[in-house]
């Protein structure tokens, strides 16, 4: 058995944990030990080679980024099995918008969902810090829609010829759209290159222009600021039955030996993401806590949140040149701020150039196989004109029964039941869904008309049972009867236990969530340093 005596123990090494550790290392002298179930994936120095192999053979550049037997079941769309140093953000696209101020006061403003225990303005400095730590390139949108205390740390990624054309189209449709904020270097920074527009953000950025958490871990480990213990799965937290304090975290190595590990710590931070944080609390039930730790309210695992989308491809009488940084897009927050009366619908809006309907093809309309110049001529003719992609994420209000439970039919190598996910919309959200999707579809049709274009195809979320940018399961609140952690992320039931980021969220807005998970985590780190 390996035994470790830690000061601050952080469980999980995802993006939230990385930036919290960076802040804690600057603001406390206490020792920080980080435990990660997986191992490190392809190091930065090898990414160009990994990309080359990926392109040549369709191989994954992120081999062995998971534990074969740690999986979720049920309606698990949105769940990713990646368990690795850096977590899911080793794979992310780097799209980093903020929520809108309305997200934090939905109940007060619109009479739906729940208010957060703090406001957008209180989160603003932590949003800024998250953007500065990872390096977000962004353009200030209209201030009323996109308020911020300070400018973006990096200038925006360029609105190139293609996006300028699409911006003109959006303007004609009455929509203000601007460069999407992204955690990608628009200028060289932190020893990493400027974005090379090579369009392999998924699955690998060879130049390091896109931020990923391994950069932070590498720097912290090299400076001896943290001890990072990889291939170690925490399987239980042990609480003192009288005081409720967490006295120990126990688990096993996930290497071939599977050796037992026991860690004592004065402060425990659960930063294991939206699935595994509630899962570990549920697994850690004991005689004094028969429903699991931090679960006096019965709220652990409940109120899983996320959003769905409506997506359309529109052909337009414009001249675009497909393939120039197709990963970069325009964004609008116009529909995230809506009138307080009327039926509830809020959504974001993104616009990309697309090659849909303009791809090269091996057979022509007559079905004849094409080679060489004939193939290229056919492609040139098809590539003329423009296809745009528009997508809106719309709010889904989380339900109390949108939840994670333990599924004893599926166990890992240690015999622990795996999580079962069941995403549910709150009934009022489910009732609005057909109308909401039709409203967004009608907007896309109006946009197509404003640009003298045609809707080529329209589709609603394919993830009918799950939701994107999943969060929740350990929601924040002032009332210990209806929430798991307080407004700083400290468990109501255990004085030295903190839950970080995604699981604590009250709702998941209608845009990509990771920047908010991290800002929320940095807010928790500020409270840990004060405690
Ligand atoms: C392909 C893809 C693209 C994406 N693109 C975007 C995007 O453009 N914008 C955006 O906002 N979001 C995006 N996301 C989502 C984003 O990656 C996640 O929201 C974010 O990474 C979550 O970070 P986290 O810190 O909450 O947790 P995680 O990344 O889930 O990290 C948790 C870590 O804890 C470890 N762990 C869990 N349990 C234990 C345990 N018991 N013991 C030890 N370790 C444990 C896990 O192995 C993992 O490394 C994308 C996701 C994917 C998969
Ligand atoms: S376009 Fe290329 S260089 Fe830029 S972030 Fe994506 S992968 Fe990295």
List the helices and strands and how they pair.
Elements: E1 2-5, E2 8-11, H1 15-27, E3 32-35, H2 47-57, E4 73-74, H3 106-110, H4 120-134, H5 161-172, E5 178-179, H6 213-222, E6 227-229, E7 232-239, E8 246-253, E9 260-264, E10 267-270, H7 273-283, E11 305-316, E12 330-332, E13 349-354, H8 372-383, E14 386-396, E15 403-411, E16 417-422, H9 427-450, E17 454-460, E18 468-471, E19 497-499, H10 514-530
Parallel strand pairs: 1-9, 2-3, 2-10, 3-6, 4-16, 10-19
Antiparallel strand pairs: 5-12, 7-8, 8-9, 11-14, 11-17, 11-18, 12-13, 13-14, 15-16
The structure holds flavin-adenine dinucleotide (FAD) and iron/sulfur cluster.
Task: Characterise this structure.
By secondary structure, the chain is α/β, with parallel strands linked by helices. It has ten helices and 19 strands. It has helices spanning 15-27, 47-57, 106-110, 120-134, 161-172, 213-222, 273-283, 372-383, 427-450, 514-530, and strands at residues 2-5, 8-11, 32-35, 73-74, 178-179, 227-229, 232-239, 246-253, 260-264, 267-270, 305-316, 330-332, 349-354, 386-396, 403-411, 417-422, 454-460, 468-471, 497-499. Strands 5, 11, 12, 13, 14, 17 and 18 form a seven-stranded antiparallel β-sheet that branches. It has a five-stranded parallel β-sheet with strand order 6-3-2-10-19, covered by helices on one side. A four-stranded mixed β-sheet has the order 1-9-8-7. Helix 1 (15-27) runs parallel beside helix 6. The radius of gyration is 24 Å and the shape is globular. It starts with a strand and ends with a helix. The mean pLDDT is 96. Bound molecules: flavin-adenine dinucleotide and iron/sulfur cluster. Flavin-adenine dinucleotide binds next to helix 1, strand 7, helix 7 and helix 10.
């Amino acid at each position: 058995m390996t035994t470790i005596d830690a000061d601050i123990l952080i469980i999980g090494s995802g993006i939230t944990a990385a930036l919290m550790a960076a802040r804690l290392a600057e603001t406390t002298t206490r020792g920080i030990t980080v435990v990660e179930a997986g191992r490190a994936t392809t190091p930065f120095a090898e990414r160009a080679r990994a990309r080359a192999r990926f392109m040549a053979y369709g191989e994954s550049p992120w081999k062995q980024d998971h534990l074969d037997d740690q999986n979720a079941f049920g309606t698990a769309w949105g769940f990713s099995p990646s368990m690795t140093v850096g977590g899911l953000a080793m794979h992310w696209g780097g799209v980093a918008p903020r929520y809108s101020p309305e997200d934090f006061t939905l109940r007060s403003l619109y009479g739906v969902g729940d208010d957060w225990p703090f406001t957008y303005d209180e989160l603003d400095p932590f949003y800024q810090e998250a953007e500065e730590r990872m390096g977000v390139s962004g353009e200030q949108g209209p201030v009323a829609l996109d308020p911020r205390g300070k400018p973006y740390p990096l200038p925006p990624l360029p609105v190139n010829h293609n996006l300028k054309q699409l911006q003109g189209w959006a303007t004609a449709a009455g929509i203000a759209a601007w460069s999407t904020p992204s955690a990608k270097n628009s200028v060289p920074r932190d020893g990493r290159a400027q974005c090379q527009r090579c369009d392999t953000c998924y699955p690998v950025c060879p130049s390091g222009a896109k931020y990923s958490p391994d950069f932070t871990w590498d720097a912290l480990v090299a400076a001896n600021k943290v001890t990072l213990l990889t291939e170690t799965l925490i399987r239980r937290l042990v609480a003192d039955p009288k005081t409720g304090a967490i006295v120990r975290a126990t688990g096993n190595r996930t290497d071939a030996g599977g050796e037992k590990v026991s860690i004592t710590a004065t402060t425990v931070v659960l930063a294991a993401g939206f699935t595994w944080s509630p899962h570990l609390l549920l697994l850690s039930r004991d005689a004094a806590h028969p429903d699991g730790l931090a679960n006096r309210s019965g709220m652990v695992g409940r109120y899983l949140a996320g959003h769905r989308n409506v997506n359309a491809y529109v052909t337009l009488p414009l001249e675009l040149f497909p393939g120039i940084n197709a990963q970069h897009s325009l964004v609008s927050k116009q529909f995230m701020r809506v009138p307080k009366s009327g039926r509830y619908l809020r959504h974001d809006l993104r616009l990309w150039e697309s090659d849909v309907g303009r791809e090269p093809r091996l057979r022509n309309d007559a079905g004849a196989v094409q080679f060489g110049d004939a193939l290229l001529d056919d492609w040139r003719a098809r590539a003329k004109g423009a296809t745009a992609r528009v997508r809106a994420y719309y709010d889904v209000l989380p339900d109390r029964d949108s939840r994670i439970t333990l599924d004893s039919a599926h166990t890992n190598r240690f015999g622990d039941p795996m999580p079962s996910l069941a995403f549910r919309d709150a009934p009022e959200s489910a009732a609005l869904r057909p109308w909401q999707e039709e409203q967004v579809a009608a907007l896309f049709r109006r946009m197509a008309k404003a640009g003298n274009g045609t809707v080529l195809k329209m589709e609603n979320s394919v993830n009918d049972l799950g939701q994107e940018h999943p969060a929740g399961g350990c929601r924040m609140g002032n009332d210990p009867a209806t929430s798991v952690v307080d407004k700083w992320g400290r468990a109501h039931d255990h004085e030295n236990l903190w839950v970080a980021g995604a699981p604590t969220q009250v709702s998941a807005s209608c845009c990509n969530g990771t920047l908010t998970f991290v800002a929320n985590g940095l807010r928790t780190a500020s409270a840990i340093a004060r405690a």
